[in-house]
Amino acid sequence: MVYGSNKSHSAATGGGSNCSGAHMERHSRRLPVFLNLAQIRFPISAIASIAHRVAGVLLFIALPVVALMLDASLRTEAGFTAVSDLFSSPLWVVTGAVLLWALVHHVLAGVRHLLMDVGVGSELVRARASARLVLVAAPALALLILVWGLT
Fold it and tell me: FRET partner for 77 with CA separation of 20 to 30 A, picked from 70, 88, 114, 150?
């Protein structure tokens, strides 16, 4: 059966709500719509807020790992050497860069949110500008800190 309006069929078969054609017609308009998230354009403030939450989750997940690595490096000389060797691997440089971005972004976006909570920069134009600033400054500062730390 084809979905859509086929009122002549429902009238000929008795119509009413017991008719399967009327039932399909009524529900075909309420079918879920596939949302392609890649095509939705989020406002810049939403992007900054989502990135702030992602950064927080990354930091939360990394905290126990960093604590265990610190513990291992402080226990013995061999533990220190193992952690030091781990930090020199290319995978750690990428991981460290992502975590550094997460830390810097989370701090900057957190300060932005705190200022907006007390009424500073909560106007739409300023809120958009501060979101852009956080999204540009966080990776730039993280990159500067990373380059400075690697030299």
Answer: 150
Single pTM value for the model: 0.73
Q: Specify the residue for token string 């009238």.
A: 11
| DSSP H helices in 29-43 | none
**Matching residue, tokens 């290319």:** 90
Q: How many CB atoms lie within 10 A of CB 105?
A: 25
**What local confidence, expressed as pLDDT, does residue 72 receive?**
96
According to the CATH classification, is domain 44-150 in 3.40.50.150? Answer: no
Enumerate the CATH 1.20.1300.10 domain ranges in the chain, comma separated. Answer: 44-150
Task: For residue range 124-137, list pLDDT tens digits in order.
Answer: 999 999 999 999 99
